[in-house]
Each structure stands twice: as C-alpha cells, then as structure tokens.
Backbone:
C-alpha cells in the first residue's frame, strides 16, 4: 500500500505519460523525497535483499557499486507508468541519487509496487551510468535481471568466478495485481533531492 504522497505522484505520472510521453515525465516528478528518506529506504531494502537472497550476496561481494530503488510504483489502465527514486551506493557511501521511470501501453489494468537493486560489476558500466543523461535500461552495458522466481536457481549455479555480465539486477518485494513486471525501457536519471 503506498502513502498519499506516492499515490499522487503516481497518478500524476500516469496522466503525464498519456499526455506528454516519457521524456517529459522524468523532470516533472523527479526528486519528491528527501535525501535522508531515500538513503534510509535504500539501505534498508539492500540489507533485506542481501539477508534473504544468496545470489544477491554472491554478486554483492564483487560489485563495484549498487543502485537501489526500494519502491517503484506502477499503475495503469491501458496507458501505464512506473516511478521510483533510489540511491547509488559505493564502498558503503551514497554517491548519487536517481529516479527510475517507464511508460507502457496496451492491455493492462491495476497497480503494483516492487523494488530493485542493480549491481554494477565493472568500472565501464559505472562510468556509462555517470556519463549518461538519462540511461535507458536495455541500451548500453549488458544486464541480467534476476526476479524472485529465478533467484533461487540462479544462486545455485552462480559463483564469483562465473559473473560475466556488466550489471545484475534483482527485483524484490513484489506486491500488487498487475502483470508484466520488467525493467527494459526504464529510464534512469540522476536527480538532486533536498
């Protein structure tokens, strides 16, 4: 269940998607939460993920940095949108804040909340994020998405020596009644919250 502030931002985001498209969405709703709120939620979500997911633990040991979006809110009725804010953590410190936004259209109705963490395994992938003026997931560094269903199997075959991709993304805390969860096409943009 999302609070009133998130619900208003989500409704606004869905309306903006329908009227103006994704490129206009990100600046319009960016940075609605404080740095302290984002930091607290990102660190709590990462700790919970690492405690409950063996594959994430293995990946975290070799990661150069992790970008954590603790709460992505997704809603739609034919036209849909999703939005959330997160923190980039490197060597235990927050080094940046980002938003994640996406638009979709088609047969859809409902709402959903989830979180995800992107583990950057190479300096080149991290540099790509830093130099991008809005990075669209699926373009650029290689990415493997690990959701709740595949994490258990993935953790059994993964070792620190078999990690070959640039980024591993783990989806967690899925709640709601909307199908079609994915990260492809999400636009990640640096923000400057208060």
Residues:
């Amino acid at each position: 269940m999302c609070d009133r502030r998130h619900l208003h931002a989500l409704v606004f985001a869905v309306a903006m998607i329908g009227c103006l498209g994704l490129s206009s969405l990100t600046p319009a709703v960016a940075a609605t939460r404080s740095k302290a709120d984002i930091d607290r939620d990102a660190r709590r979500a990462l700790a919970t993920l690492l405690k409950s997911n063996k594959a994430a633990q293995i990946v975290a040991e070799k990661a150069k940095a992790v970008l954590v979006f603790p709460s992505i809110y997704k809603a739609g009725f034919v036209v849909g949108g999703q939005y959330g804010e997160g923190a980039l953590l490197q060597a235990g410190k927050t080094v940046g804040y980002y938003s994640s936004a996406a638009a979709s259209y088609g047969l859809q109705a409902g709402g959903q909340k989830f979180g995800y963490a992107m583990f950057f395994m190479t300096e080149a992938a991290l540099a790509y994020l830093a130099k991008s003026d809005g990075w669209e997931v699926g373009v650029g560094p290689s990415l493997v998405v690990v959701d709740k269903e595949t994490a258990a199997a993935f953790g059994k075959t993964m070792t620190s020596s078999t990690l070959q991709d640039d980024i591993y993304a783990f989806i967690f805390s899925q709640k709601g009644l909307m199908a079609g969860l994915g990260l492809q096409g999400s636009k990640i943009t640096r923000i400057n919250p208060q």
